Structures are given as C-alpha cells and as structure tokens.
Amino acid sequence: METQTQTTVDRHRRIILFPLPYQGHVNPMLQLANLLYSKGFNITIFHTNFNKPKTSNYPHFTFKFILDNDPHDERYCNLPLHGMGAFSRVLLFNQFGADELRHQLELELSKKDEPSVSCLITDALWHFAQPVAVSLNLPRLVLRTSSLFCFLVYASLPLLNDRGYLDHSNDITTPLLDGLGYQHLSDNNHLEEQVMEFPMLKVKDIIKMGFKKANDVVGDVIGNMVKRTKASSGIIWNSFKGLEEPELETVVREISAPSFLIPFPKHFTASSSSLHEQDRTFFPWLDQQPPKSVVYVSFGSVSQLNEKHFLEMVHGLVDSKQSFLWVVRPGFVDGSTWLEALPDGLMGERGRIVKWAPQQEVLAHKAIGAFWTHSGWNSTFESVCEGVPMICSPFWGDQPLNARYTSDVLKVGVYLENGWKREEITNAIRRVMVDEEIRERVKILKQKLDVSLIKGGSSYESVQSLVAYISSL
Ligand code: UDX
Predict the structure, then answer these.
(1) Among 68, 123, 216, 398, the one annotated catalytic
(2) Structural domains in the chain (count)
(3) What is the CA radius of gyration of the chain?
(4) Is 359 in the pocket of ligand 1 (CB under 6 A)?
(5) Is the CB of 147 within 6 Å of ligand 1?
(6) Are residues 140 and 219 in the same domain?
(7) pLDDT for the residue numbered 170
(8) Are residues 28 and 118 located together in one domain of the fold?
C-alpha cells in the first residue's frame, strides 16, 4: 500500500462529506476523507446515527449526526436495522431529508471561526442533496461507490425497459433474498441472449439486478441518482482508468461534470471504518498455509442466503478440498443467528469460519489464492488491487454487472451464473486455483494499477486534479 505523505498546510478549506450509512458506502467515503485530509483539507463528516462509524478512529475529523436524531419521529423510528429493509432509509431520507440537510449546511456555512466550506461531497444515492446544495450555492460533488460500467447500465434502464429487457422482472419474487430466481431464469433461453446495447451482458444479467418493470421505488431512486449525478459539480469513482477505459470514454463524452478515478484501497485500508468487530485470531493459521493455497470467502455486508443454498456452499467448498477462510456474518443464513445450519464435523480442519475479517489485509496475504465473492464493487476492486482472482456469486443490484465484467470483460474470475450447485462450486474453485491465464491477467491488472499510482500515471494525476479542482471552487 502506498503511504500518503501528509502535507503540512494551514487547513483553511473545509469539505463536508456525507456517506450513505452502509459498509460498502461508508468505506470508500472515509477513505476519500482520509485522502483529502492528507492533502491539507479540513474534514467534516455528516452521518446518520444509524450505522455510525467509530469516531475515535478519526480524531482529526469533525462528525455531525443528522436526519435521525429524533427518536419520536414516526417516519424513522422502527425502521429495520438489518437485511434489505435497512435500505428503506435511503428512500425515506431522500424523500424527507432536504429541510434538515439544508438547515445543517446553513449552520456550517455560517460558522465564522471555522475554515470556509469548499464543497459538499455526498454518496451518489443521496440524490436529494443536489437541489439542496444548488439552493445554497454550494458545489456538490458525488462519490459513486460502484463501477463506471454499472452507472452506464443504470443510466440506460429507461431504454432497457422500453426495449422489453425488464419484461420478466415482475415474475421473480425473491431474487433479493437468496438468488432463487437464478434457477427460474436458467429455464428460459431468451434470457441467455446478448443485450444489444451492452454486448457483454446477457438478458438475465439485467433481470438479476432485481428492478421491477413498473412502479418501482428503487428504480425511482436509481433514476434520480443518475440525473442528479450528471447535474453535480464532479464525480469521484473508486476505480482506475486501466480497468474501465471504454466506459470512462463514454462517461467523459456524455457527462459534462468532471470525473476523477481514484483507487481508494491503494491509498488507505477500510479497516478503521469497519462497522463490525474484526476477528484477527485466524492470522497465525493463515501465516502457516502455503502461498496461494487458501480460498477467501466473503459475501459483503448485506447479502443473505437461504439454508438450502448455504448447504450447497458448504458442500461445494468441502468437496473442493481447498483450504478456506470463510466470513459468515451473523444473520447471513436466513432464519439463523449464525452457524446453526452447519452440519457437525463436516468442515474438518481445512477451513476457518469467522464473523467478520479485515478483508483487505486478508486479500493481501500471500496464502490467499482466490476470492469467492458476491461481487460487491468494493470487494471486486479490493481483489483487483491485491491481484487475487475471483469466483463470482452475485445477488442483486450492481453485483450481477460486476460479476459479468469480472468474468467476461476483465477475464479475472469465474462466474457461477447458475446459482448454488455444489458440483459447479467445486469445479469453479478448483479451476480458479489452478488457471494460470486468469492468475496472469489479474497480476497484470494489479501491475497496471500500481504503475498508474506513480507520478505521471493516471491515478496519481486524478488525485492531483481532484485536489486542484476542489481548491478552485
Ligand atoms: C453494497 C453492495 O452490495 C455493493 O454491490 C455496492 O457496490 C456497495 O454497497 P456490500 O454488499 O457490503 O456493499 O459489498 P462491498 O461493496 O463488497 O463492500 C463490503 C465492504 O466490507 C468491503 O470494503 C470489504 O472490505 C468490507 N468487509 C467485508 C470487511 O471489511 N470484512 C469482511 O469480513 C467483509
């Protein structure tokens, strides 16, 4: 990892950053905040009380908790804390949060004894912040935590809808929970066809995103996210030019707001913004494993699997005869608190199961040979950053797009696109552990990324441009 040299400057410009309160969004935003701090800016973080990060890890930042301070506010009190329901906050705060956000920003802007505010940087999904920022004459930049490719597909959803690609989406009842829709989908040949507008995608990839055809509130949020990201003063992406060059060309051609591609995991780890306690007890075991011999398995911070598919996972892993380190979050198996569904004695000595791990450190460990992932963008990109090939089992949202891109465009992973079948899992794990071509490609990608961070490289220049741009606001 690159060490950031701290610039010794008088911190006379301030930036307010406002992440979406979920692990996959808090991580890149706080990595960005660290980066901007290292470049001399004063940092204020707006955050909900829900899922607040450990502020003691950030003594150099000022935190302000907003939107859900009133325990009697009927709109927000009783919202689910876990699973997909936890995302209801995104809908509600986008709907009702504008007045409070404006009020809190006015307070910050009027502070005479604090450095003046250069800009607001919010998660792209906080689209309600755009009109608020405009009304205050405050430039708003956006952090988009997924890939450029995903943004372009999301931006084309109305078109894809018009062309009939979402026609089957209303048939699927449970793709958000456990991928049950996969079997259903694989029965229909039409869904294996190529998407004309995005030739690397199959029709089923569009369906697996889980957006309904009509009256979809999530679709509305996505539509507003796209529209207001385009209207923002700049877009910051957790990516690098060599990874998504054609998509970057399209973004630059079609969006007037400047884009900055910054590979955050190469600047700071996400450890300090972890919302869960990290288990480190397995490191002595991992240290003793031969190089590139262990499969790391983790499905991010929100996905859930039903018991039947969890058992397919267990058997697939055990039958592969590879050593593994597996993160099973409490609640990952639907209806279980943790590992009740795990058959006694089946795992043997070959594997370790933990509740949460310092993921980036694990991926950087010499013993790790492959990453079986749900293809969340942070996980995908962290794997690229460490040169680790992937086995992809996406659930919903951007994940099916990331999985397809990983396997068919970058060719640094194997996509388990037919759901949870133990034989296929075993075969995919064995293949990724020995496939020299996949390993070589991901190694080259990592090298390309490392070179881009050197002075004159695209990622290096992107940081410089972002700092210059914000300083000019
Ligand atoms: C969600 C979406 O699923 C994802 O597709 C989107 O891009 C961001 O929001 P999540 O499902 O949590 O995120 O996945 P991911 O994007 O991979 O983020 C998970 C983060 O948690 C990663 O930064 C990873 O390093 C971290 N993590 C995960 C840990 O630190 N420890 C773990 O044990 C597991």
Answers:
(1) 123
(2) 2
(3) 22
(4) yes
(5) no
(6) yes
(7) 59
(8) yes
pLDDT surpasses 50 at 3: no
Looking at the structure, do residues 325 and 461 belong to the same domain, yes or no?
no
Does residue 205 carry a catalytic annotation? no
Q: Do 244 and 232 belong together in one domain?
A: yes
Q: Ligand 1 centre from 403 Cα, in Å? A: 14
Exposed e or buried b per residue across 352-381, where buried means at least 16 C-beta atoms within 10 angstroms of its C-beta: bbbbbbbbbbbbbbebbbbbbbbbbbbbbb
CB atoms within 10 A of CB 255: 19
Ligand 1 binding pocket mutation candidate from 301, 365, 386, 406 (most atoms within 8 A of CB): 301
| Amino acid of residue 250 | T
177 within some domain: no
Residue located via tokens 């690159």: 2
pLDDT one-digit tens code per residue, 141-159: 999 999 999 999 999 999 9
pLDDT in tens, 167-219: 766 555 434 333 434 444 545 677 899 999 999 999 999 999 988 766 678 88
ipTM entry? 0.98
Ligand 1 center to residue 126 CA distance, Å? 18
Instruction: Output the pLDDT for position 2.
Output: 41
Domain that holds residue 242: 13-151+213-263+453-472
* Neighbour-count burial of 410, counting CB atoms closer than 10 A to its CB (0-12 exposed, 13-18 middle, 19+ buried): middle
* Residue closest by Cα to atom 1 of ligand 1: 24
Q: What is the pLDDT of residues 37-94, one digit of tens each?
A: 999 999 999 999 999 999 999 999 999 999 999 989 998 888 888 777 888 999 999 9
